[in-house]
């Protein structure tokens, strides 16, 4: 589903690489934790998948396509196949829960009828039944992140990328979010989650890919993470 073939990313000529000769395959349906200290290259990895940044050397493939060869007019189609969730939720503050999720469908031209059916269904998946008419500020942090996840998956992407999705949440709330991500993964979506939260990684026992200074130093099935050295 995602392949990095000897990928190096330099943001500028003189700095050390953000990613340094990274090669990795993520199969369809996998759940992968991308771990490492702040600055190790996790966000860069995610931005390369979305074609928000370009590899300096090497090749990134997403769903069989070399992203460097995707013309700009087709980038929206690439991104439609990828849901993304961030640490800071990024909800529209003046729109209801329903409207935040509906918005993702409106922008790709889905009909009102389809939106009316899909939004309640996806809100149920993330455990937000009955919260349709709330505004983001009326929700807890965990609930806001559930809205963001609902918005990310409502168009049924093959890939869900999560960049520190539990970074603003307490441990109990974080575990609830992980259960949601696990359920989405079990429904067939490939999930890549960047985190430096060792407790979360150790509670889940998924594949763990560890970055240090832009290099993969470890790749383990049912792995653990001991945190930053
Ligand atoms: P992480 O997500 O693990 O914290 P990042 O991918 O954000 O790591 O950063 C990896 C390295 O690349 C760091 O040294 C960071 O300072 C640098 N970096 C990240 N984004 C940029 C950017 N837009 N311009 C220049 N350097 C960047
Ligand atoms: P806009 O800001 O585009 O005028 P809204 O933010 O009010 O629209 O909502 C976007 C869409 O979601 C509209 O079609 C609206 O009717 C619909 N909508 C909002 N909340 C609900 C809800 N709780 N149940 C059903 N439809 C809703």
TrEMBL record:
ABC transporter domain boundaries: 2-229
Signal peptide per UniProt: none
Transmembrane segments: none
GO MF annotation: an example: ATP binding
Keyword annotations of the record: ATP-binding, Cell cycle, Cell division, Cell membrane, Membrane, Nucleotide-binding
Membrane association type: Peripheral membrane protein
Keyword Glycosyltransferase carried by entry: no
Entry's localization field: Cell membrane
SUPFAM superfamilies reported for this sequence: P-loop containing nucleoside triphosphate hydrolases
PROSITE patterns in alphabetical order: ABC_TRANSPORTER_1 (PS00211), ABC_TRANSPORTER_2 (PS50893)
GO biological process: cell division
Gene3D superfamilies, per the entry: P-loop containing nucleotide triphosphate hydrolases
SMART domains xref list: AAA (SM00382)
Family: Belongs to the ABC transporter superfamily.
Subunit structure: Homodimer. Forms a membrane-associated complex with FtsX.
Stated role: Part of the ABC transporter FtsEX involved in cellular division.
Name of this protein: Cell division ATP-binding protein FtsE
The gene coding this protein: ftsE
């Amino acid at each position: 589903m995602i392949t990095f073939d000897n990928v190096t990313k330099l943001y500028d000529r003189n700095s050390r690489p953000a990613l340094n000769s990274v090669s990795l395959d993520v199969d369809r349906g996998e759940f992968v934790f991308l771990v490492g200290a702040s600055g190790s290259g996790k966000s860069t990895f995610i931005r390369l998948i979305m074609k928000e940044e370009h590899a300096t050397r090497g090749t990134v493939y997403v769903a069989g396509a070399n992203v460097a060869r995707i013309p700009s007019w087709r980038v929206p189609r690439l991104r439609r196949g990828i849901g993304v969730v961030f640490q800071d939720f990024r909800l529209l503050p003046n729109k209801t829960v329903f409207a935040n999720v509906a918005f993702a469908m409106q922008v790709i031209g889905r009909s009102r009828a389809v939106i009316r059916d899909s939004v309640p269904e996806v809100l149920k998946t993330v455990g937000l039944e009955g919260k349709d008419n709330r505004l983001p500020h009326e929700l807890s942090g965990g609930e806001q992140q559930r809205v963001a996840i609902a918005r990310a998956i409502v168009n049924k992407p093959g890939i869900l990328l999560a960049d520190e999705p539990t970074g603003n949440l307490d441990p109990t709330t974080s575990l609830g979010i992980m259960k949601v991500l696990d359920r989405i993964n079990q429904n067939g979506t490939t999930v890549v989650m960047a985190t430096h939260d060792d407790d979360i990684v150790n509670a889940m026992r998924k594949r763990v890919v560890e970055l240090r200074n832009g290099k993969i130093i470890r790749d383990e099935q049912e792995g653990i993470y001991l945190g930053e050295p």
